[in-house]
Amino acid sequence: MEMLKFGKLAALALTLAVAAGCSSKGAENTGEGTNPNNGYDASTQGSGTDGMLADEAALRAITTFYFAYDSSDLLPEAMRALDVHAKDLKGDGSRVVLQGNTDERGTREYNMALGERRGMAVQRYLVLQGVSPAQLEVVSYGEERPAATGSDEESMAQNRRVNLVK
Questions:
Q1: Which of 12, 37, 75, 159 has the most crowded CB, counting CB atoms within 10 A?
Q2: How many CB atoms lie within 10 A of CB 21?
Q3: CATH code reported for the domain at 64-166
């Protein structure tokens, strides 16, 4: 009887070990297509002062922030880059334009409003980080300025964005 309990316990432990080994921490497919911000983890990049400067430079180079379909919610990878931009903007007092864009789905009016909501989401985040609202201008282009042509999901994902333009 004791051997049967041990066998069941061993089988359960083996099943759990296999399940844990097969699990994935990959991102869900949210229909975002190619996003150059995906996969960047500042906590694992570089070492020491030189590594931190390289990390900031890499984040500073990100000036396009992508959004999920029909959403104006900022993604965590966008927030890391926006933190660096906020630090720079607070330091130099320069002005930037936040250009909201959408894919081609939806009416022109809806897309103009969605592009504005996306720009406002970036503006709100930067203001919360201490940037003066006077330094930020939001402009919505809706679907009028696509970054990628095509009606496939990858092209549309590249068009759901806010560009930070100095």
A1: 159
A2: 7
A3: 3.30.1330.60
